[in-house]
Amino acid sequence: MDSKTALLKKYKRRQRLVTVLPFVALAVLFAVLCLTVQAKGYRLPMYLKILLNEGVVLAIVATGATFIYTLGSFDISLGASTLFSATVGVMVYNATGNFGLMLLAIFGVAIGCSLLSSVLASVFHIPVFVTTVAMMSVLSAVAAQIITANGGALGGISIPAEVVRPFDVMWFKILVLTVFFAVCMFLFDYTKLGRRQKFLGGNPVCAKLTGIDLNKYAILAFIMAGIGVGIGAFLTLVYTPSVTTGTAGSIGMNILVAIVFGGMPISGGPRSKIYAAVVGGFSYIILNNILKILIDSNAGYGISQIVSAVFFLAVVYVTGMNYRSQLLPR
Amino acid sequence: MKAPILQMKNIHKRFSSTIALDGVDLDAFPGEICGLIGENGSGKSTISSIAAGMQKADEGEMFFRGEPWSPVSMIDALEKGIGMIVQESGTISGISVAENLFLAEVKKFRKGPVVDREEMNRQADLALDAIGASDIRGNMPMSALDFQARKLVEIAKVVMKDPDVLVVDETSTALSHEGRNILYDVMRRFREEDKAVLFISHDLDEIMDVCDTLTVLRDGNLIRTFSKEEFNPDAIRMSMIGRELKGDYYRSDFIPSSLDEIALKGEDLSIPGELDGVDLTLRKGEIVGIGGLSHCGMHTLGKVLFGAIRPESGRVVTGDGSEIRDEGSSMKHNIGYVAKDRDTESLNLTASIRDNIAIAGLDRYAVSGFLLTAGNEKKYVDKQIADLSIKCSDRDQAVQQLSGGNKQKVVFGKWIGRGSDILILDCPTRGVDIGVKRDMYRLMSDMKKQGKAILIISEELPELIGMSDRLIIMKDGRITKEFTRSESLSDADVINYMI
Amino acid sequence: MKKYLAMILAMVMVLALAACGSAAPAASEQAPAGDSGKTVKIGVLVADVSGEEALGFANYYRNYIQSNYNVEFSYTEQLADAAAEKAAIEKFAAQGYDAIISFSASDRATQLQTCIDNGLYYAVASGMLDDAQYEQFKTSEYFVGQIGPSMDTEYEAGYAMGKYFADQGAKKIAMYGAFIPNPMHVFRAAGVLAGIGATYGGASEKDAIVGQIFADQGIDLKKVESKDVELAGYFQGFGDTTFDELFACIGAQPDAFLSVGMATTFFTQNLNDAGIAFSDIDSFTSANGEAMADGKLVYLAGKYSSSIGPVFAAVLNAVNGTPVRDDEGNAISLSQDYLVATDADSFQKYAAADQGDSPIFSKEVLDTIIGDVSYADFSAAVAADRG
After folding, report:
1. Which are the contacts of A85, defined by CB distance < 8 A and separation ≥ 6?
2. Residue-wise pLDDT tens digits, A4-63
3. Predicted local distance difference test score (pLDDT) of residue B468
4. Can you tell me the distance from the alpha carbon of A119 to that of A121, in angstroms, rounded to the nearest whole number?
5. In this complex, is the C-beta atom of A299 within 8 Å of any C-beta atom belonging to chain C?
6. Of the four listed, B228, B370, B414, C376, which is most buried by Cβ atoms within 10 Å?
């Protein structure tokens, strides 16, 4: 019996370790970054500002997307819908000169695209993932058409920088991130919405037999993701008041990486964590920056990508460790 | 006495926090069917799976026909003489029966670059004929077969390799009457051929009927081996659970009773090929049993009554006349449903006990209907863990780490916790040991006393007869007979209406 | 427990970030880097890291300039969008860089604004801002200037190429639009149409043709009308059907195949085999030299790698406190034309001048425009040395 309780303790300790690990990784990476920046004689405060700017859009869009990932589903169109929302926002501002209408357009389009993906999927009984693939192609093509047709020689479209410049300050971005994260955390951990989504992600058949309607929760998840995309698109414009066909291009893949770095299983389910996107997103951004500082870009392109890929695999292995050993035969 | 074919000595095995085997010795003798029995988690599946190469022992020695035995895999073990029919389904549904049977050996049928499918199908048919499952053919797609037929394919797959030791792990619970007979015939043939069989089952009656000796395991220890002449249900039960079972196993009364009020009513329910105009009334304070062969439509009926399947025609209404259209409306009217396939339909295995119990009761303990607080939730869940005495390390333990009986208790807790007034139980005691079974029967009796309505769908006649106020028998999607509770009602009376 | 940890971490981040708010103004107080021995650090923004032209440019800065002057160049990775450009500039600022030279064109106005905000000198190389943007920023002290082909130059390069073949008597041509709607390619293609005397959708003016090509995202053959030279085939982009489209064009047996970019990379072999004379706007690489000497490449307009030398000189002057401004005190704005080779000899001359230790803008040439030089001298030097 003693050995049994000891083993149980060991198991629980490991479980706790896996939970805490993403936070520890973030703290360690943050410390390493500060040290590296100091050692190189760079300006740390500026670096922190850059990190926030690079991470905030990713963290917000990925936090919204966590609701989709929790269902065990996947939305590949988030980058394209960020681009498309920002594009429409710019067009609306340039046509009306009205900031409020621009915001309305950005959020309307972002949530609308998301809803369309999920409603199409539920009407035609196809996996949501499939509709998001279609959405991705359509949205990026339409956005590209708008941008190139209107951007002309500039290759991009933009709104006057003064419109969004007041928002390009740290406290505003931190506030937006904090509020959005708090709302998501509340919905995810303290209301039926999040609990039922986690359950759906774990076993949709059982969830159905517990009265949980997959379509309804898929649509709700996509609305949350849409709100995240809307905020992301707005903050993208705040950072650079222009949109090109390449805008937000890397978001789609980075969401996946962020969520995994944050210690959430990619298959969603009961072990999903709302903080994964924020913790993982910033870890990933910090890691990339450390690598870029340490590895001289002149040494060759792609080395830092390889290192971060190795890191990614290591994280997946460690976070999956406990999961695998739980599958006991009887 | 003959020398054992298989000898296992001082076998130890642990899974992270759980000690599954604590120094067990087990022998299998030629011409003998040895039963292995014990509660969930007693170690009976573990010891047999070690013998069959599915996993390795941490300590201990094994000898097969006198030689040291250490198979590297189940396939290796089967090639060398020990075959096992596993509890969980080991077939692949996207391919044909023949391909399943010859999964690793397709190249045997290779003629140049192509596989000779006709020959492969012919060989498969022979293997199926050999166990008496002639209605399954090699060219059938696996996905066209039901649960039972798949099990028979697995049996054929092992038997065609002609092993010296056959391990059968709780396979019979998946089988109907005729399926079981096929399995028993196979086992008897092994005995006649002077080979050994290790047979694991929960069903005491079955195991006493089929086996020559019976070994009882408890908490990873071998408790006792009974010879045929020592077989005595009470003694065996006692050694299984380590204490005497007090009180009655089933309901002690034999008087049918119910309140007048109707709880749930199915009217003219039809689904082509599955249900054919079923009318059924369940009253408050009543336990209604539904029995039949596994394809009689009773499992579908359970889902229809819960709203999980919409009938082609007919409707399901509650006592107050509201129609049940889906699972959501069912839950709104306090109906709960325990599915037959526990691991895939009733539980979220990777989730914790807490998640599984709480999920059905979120609306019950949420503050102002939406805010979920950890305090309320823990109270809600802990009450179920305590009331049902679920054996676990704590509420956050993953359900997949629990034994079958405790898993089923979690499912019960999920529905009882939210105060379900009507429970539809599909095979609620399947794969559950007798200790837990008894707890569940008691629970049903208690709920009946509280005026709750219970519908039990089961393939086990004794429990239906033992528990039901009314017993409804189904065949081919229709109700063929209804019995009222009585002391004189026996299996034999009922079985005629099933087949 | 994990929640507390999350909160603590969030607090740390917030505090650290808040601290940066107060510390930021101190960032730009470093002494300007002079020629007193301190290395001048220049960050280079690039959107292309692998093209022939980009490699030629990088080679010139990293190998030639860096070994002749006390400067250090740091190149970015491939910048995908405006946000990446802005972040790259901010990182250079954080690392104490003095100036930015930009080859990346997602959002030059934001790049410039970011440099101004961070006190970095900024220059556009091998391209130009549009007129409105130039007007907006030309008086900023941090805007050093822009030296390179303007969109007008791109149009002119296309026009010259089209006119060359028309003058040579070509009656039927095919055309490759490269990566339209990339603005550079749109302007060149519009130039080609005008050069062969064609109208597009009835328009013959530059702006009207350009506008329609942007709107169509390509060239619609039905809208092309021409008296003398027939446009028999057109395609653009690079994908699954590209070679089918190429062979269709070849099948039309044109007198010449005109490309506004990349054809020498993609199609040289096929066009040589088909025996069709072709032209491109590219750079003076050895492969192009062979195609001109032994193959069917008959016309090549190209930038030479050291054409970015004057931009460097202007940036260095600004960092060293002797900025070159025009007569009204505005940032430099000088257009550079393409060099055109139509035979192996002229090609070899340009190629030779562009390689190795004696580039067109060699140290000797650059030294005449580094230091205290007048705007007139500077622009004359840029306009002069043309191989």
Report:
1. A105, A106, A107, A109, A110, A113, A229, A230, A233
2. 566 666 667 777 777 888 898 899 999 999 999 999 889 999 899 999 998 999 999 999
3. 93
4. 5
5. no
6. B414
pLDDT at B51 over 80: yes
- % of chain B surpassing 90 pLDDT: 37
Q: Where are the beta strands (DSSP E) in B160-271?
A: 165-169, 196-200, 213-218, 221-227, 262-271
Nearest CA in chain A to C130: A154
Residue C171 near residue C228 (C-beta atoms within 8 A): yes
B358/C194 Cα distance (integer angstroms): 74
Q: Contact at 8 Å (CB) between B408 and B339?
A: no
Look up residue C64 and give its DSSP letter: I
Q: How confident is the model at residue A326 (pLDDT cuts 50, 70, 90)?
A: very low
Pairing verdict, β C277-283 and C297-303: parallel
Confidence band (pLDDT; 50, 70, 90) for B470? very high
Structure tokens at C130: 């549009």
Query: What secondary structure letter does DSSP report for B429?
Result: T
Interface pTM (ipTM) of the complex?
A: 0.86
- Does any domain span residue A294? no
Residue C25's φ and ψ, nearest 5 degrees, are -60, -30
List Cβ neighbours of A310 (8 Å cut-off, separation of 6 or more): none
Residue of A nearest to C183 (CA): A153
> Could you give all domains of chain C from N- to C-terminal order, each with its CATH number?
33-149+305-337+359-384 (3.40.50.2300), 152-303 (3.40.50.2300)
- Specify which residues B338 forms β-bridges with: B425
Nearest Cα of chain A lies from the Cα of C283 at a distance, in angstroms, of 22
Q: Among candidates B428, B462, B460, which has minimal Cα distance to B443?
A: B428
Distance CA B85, CA B131 (A): 14
Q: With contact defined as beta carbons under 8 Å apart, do A65 and A276 qualify?
A: no
Contacts 24+ apart (CB under 8 A), A167-173: A167/A238, A168/A238, A168/A239, A170/A49, A170/A52, A170/C17, A170/C18, A170/C20, A170/C21, A171/C18, A171/C21, A172/A238, A173/A52, A173/A53, A173/A56, A173/A235, A173/A238
Chain A hits for B15, CB-CB cut-off 8 Å, are: 328-329
Chain-chain contact of B351 with A3 (C-beta, under 8 angstroms): no
**Range B6-241: architecture per CATH:** 3-Layer(aba) Sandwich (3.40)
Residues of chain C with pLDDT under 50: 1-7, 9-35, 387
DSSP A247: T
Q: How far is A100 from chain C (nearest CA, A)?
A: 23
Whether chain B has a CB inside 8 Å of the CB on A270: the answer is yes
Give the closest of B330, B360, B401 to A328, CB-based. B401
- The answer to whether B142 touches B96, Cβ cutoff 8 Å, is yes
DSSP run (H or E) holding A226:
helix A214-239
Closest CA relative to residue B49, chosen from B22, B29, B23, B20: B20
Which three-class secondary structure state does DSSP give residue C80?
A: coil
Residues 6 or more apart whose Cβ sits within 8 Å of residue B398: A326, B349, B350, B351, B352, B353
3-state class of B2 per DSSP? coil
Whether this prediction's pTM lies above 0.80 is answered by: no
- By C-alpha distance, the chain A residue nearest B303 is A209
Task: State residue C233 phi and psi, 5-degree precision.
Answer: -160, 150
Pick from B133-137, B160-164, C27-31: least confident: C27-31
Cβ of A52 under 8 Å from any chain C Cβ?
Answer: yes
Chain B contact set for A190 (CB, 8 A): 371-373
Looking at the partner chain, which of B327, B362, B373 has a beta carbon nearest the beta carbon of A208? B327
pLDDT tier at B154 (50, 70, 90 boundaries)?
A: confident
Total number of domains in chain A: 1
Q: What is the third-level CATH fold of B247-334+421-499? A: Rossmann fold (3.40.50)
